[in-house]
Amino acid sequence: MHPRRISSKKKDVSIQKESRIFWKFWTVAVILLLAWIAASPYGVWKYRKLQREKATVYAQYVKMMKENEALKQYAARFQDDREFQERVIRKELGWVRDDELLYKFVN
After folding, report:
1. What is the tens place of the pLDDT at every residue in 69-100?
2. 94 secondary structure, DSSP code
């Protein structure tokens, strides 16, 4: 019986070594897979970067839409309101009526 025990111990040691190698292989494989998921061209980092870019572009879009709406209102008011037209022309172009004098003060 003694020889059987030695051979079963050798088998147990051999199985343990194979088991360790198996688990080391799968651990490395899982780590590599997770690294690929995170850092690949289609991975999590790229996805997060694209999400930030999308948020920035959307914020610019909203800002431009507000500016566009304000300019539409300004243009409509400029077309319809004669007093507003006169105020804008006087302020922006510095125009005066024939019977007026314009004084400019320098600080």
Report:
1. 999 999 999 999 999 999 998 888 888 888 88
2. -
